[in-house]
Amino acid sequence: MKIFIVHGIGINKPGYADSLIQGIKTEFNNQVTVAVKERKDYAQDLDFHPIVWDNLLGPRQKKLAQKIRENMVKF
């Protein structure tokens, strides 16, 4: 089963989803083990694909953030 993970806002680098993936695998194995009453690595068939998209949108995001900072009203 393929599982795609898309990060939220901000700048992210490869590896950003490593701890999330490990947590999902652990919980998946725990839940299936309880259901079938046999322990093994059920998560081996989970195929994770973290997607890093900020290399496409990051430059525009930085420009927008700069414009916002430049136009903020300071009290």
Question: What characteristics describe this protein?
Answer:
75 residues; alpha+beta; two-stranded parallel ribbon; 2 helices; 2 strands; elongated
Largest sheet, spatial ordering of strands: 1-2
Mean pLDDT: 88
What is the CA–CA distance across the termini? 53 Å
* Fraction in helix: 40-55%
> What is Rg?
19 Å
Number of strands: 2
Q: What structural category characterises the helix and strand content?
A: alpha+beta
Unreliable spans: none
Largest sheet features: 2 strands, parallel
Shape: elongated
Number of helices: 2
Describe the structure.
The chain is an alpha+beta fold and 75 residues long. It is built from two helices and two strands, in the order βαβα. It has helices spanning 18-36, 54-70; strands spanning 2-6, 47-51. The protein has a two-stranded parallel sheet with strand order 1-2. The protein is elongated, with a radius of gyration of 19 Å. The mean pLDDT is 88.
Question: How would you summarize the topology of this molecule?
Answer:
Layout: E1 2-6, H1 18-36, E2 47-51, H2 54-70
Could you write a compact summary of the structure shown?
Helices cover 48% and strands 13% of the residues. The protein has 75 residues and is an alpha+beta fold.
